[in-house]
C-alpha cells in the first residue's frame, strides 16, 4: 500500500513538472513567433 501511494505521488509530481515545462516551452515558441512577425513587419515597412 505504501508503494502504491509513493508511486502515485511521484507520478503527480512528474506530471506537474511536465506541465510547467510544456507551458514554458509554449511561451518561448510564442515569443519567437512574435519576434519573427515584428521583424517581417519592419522589413515590409522599409520596402
Automatic annotation (TrEMBL):
The entry's keywords: Cell membrane, Lipoprotein, Membrane, Palmitate, Signal
Transmembrane regions listed in the UniProt entry: none
One GO location term (cellular component): membrane
Signal peptide from the UniProt entry: 1-17
GO biological process: response to toxic substance
One Pfam family per UniProt: Entericidin
Family the UniProt entry places it in: Belongs to the EcnA/EcnB lipoprotein family.
Descriptive protein name: Entericidin
Source species: Zavarzinia compransoris
